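Entry for the shared binder. Reason: the reviewer on the internal report wants the predicted structure included alongside the sequence.
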Amino acid sequence: MMSNVLIAIIVEGNAEQAIVDVLLKHHALIYGREDLLQEEVIRTRSASSFSKKYLNKSMNKMVRIYRVLDSKTENFKLSKVYQKKVELPINNLYTTPEIEILFILYHDDINKYKRSKLKPSSFVKQNYSDLAKVKSYKDVFDFWDNHFLELIQALKKYKSSNSDNNALYDIINEDTKRKVSNK
């Protein structure tokens, strides 16, 4: 456990939260649930909501923020009063164009997807039957929990084809990365 900093992992939707929760369940991140602010993955898109709910308390630790998001244009500006409680800059971990791209990578269908001109979530709904609801927390959690090493492989594939972006794979611990490279 890191003693001088709390980690805030902020996600935008059910699928992102489910994937981060799977990674936490399998101890795959460089942080454990006990390192997280209130020991939870945080669902919010607004810096002001996040600040009011989580930074408005007196804390003796700095907060390091990781945002899991698909858009590079999404703004997350903390007011000056809260900036002194946070390690800057904020770490953005991208899953462009959508988190469902991981499912397409799992199926090794990236070329078929690119030809389709569909959003990843639409492509997944139209082409696969092994994930009932692509936006359902339970369905996404259960799928990746049962395909954990394949999730890590999909995250690695995503990172290697998007090496200029920070990605979830960047906060996977070395033990987990080794399990995938040995497979």
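Summary line for the report: The chain has a mean pLDDT of 92.
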